[in-house]
Amino acid sequence: MFFVATKKFVQVYDLQKAEVVKKLESGLREISSISIHPGGDNVIVGSKDGKLCWFDTDLSTRPYKML
């Protein structure tokens, strides 16, 4: 798995298949940072305005919780 953050989304790629497998929709204005659990199933996304989105990628492409 390979994660790429753009201003609004985090795309998850499967490099062996050379395809996008998930597109995480944060709803944030502008993503400034991401942190990925080693298992790849939990992702924290931070924005420039201080908000955080927590994704459980096994459940949904929408945030599990916003802080």
From TrEMBL:
The biological process GO terms on file are:
maturation of LSU-rRNA from tricistronic rRNA transcript (SSU-rRNA, 5.8S rRNA, LSU-rRNA)
Gene Ontology CC terms, in alphabetical order: PeBoW complex; preribosome, large subunit precursor
Which species does this protein come from? Aegilops tauschii subsp. strangulata (Goatgrass)
Q: Which InterPro entries match?
A: BOP1/Erb1, WD40/YVTN_repeat-like_dom_sf, WD40_repeat_dom_sf
Q: Which GO terms describe its molecular function?
A: ribonucleoprotein complex binding
Tell me what this protein is called.
BOP1 N-terminal domain-containing protein
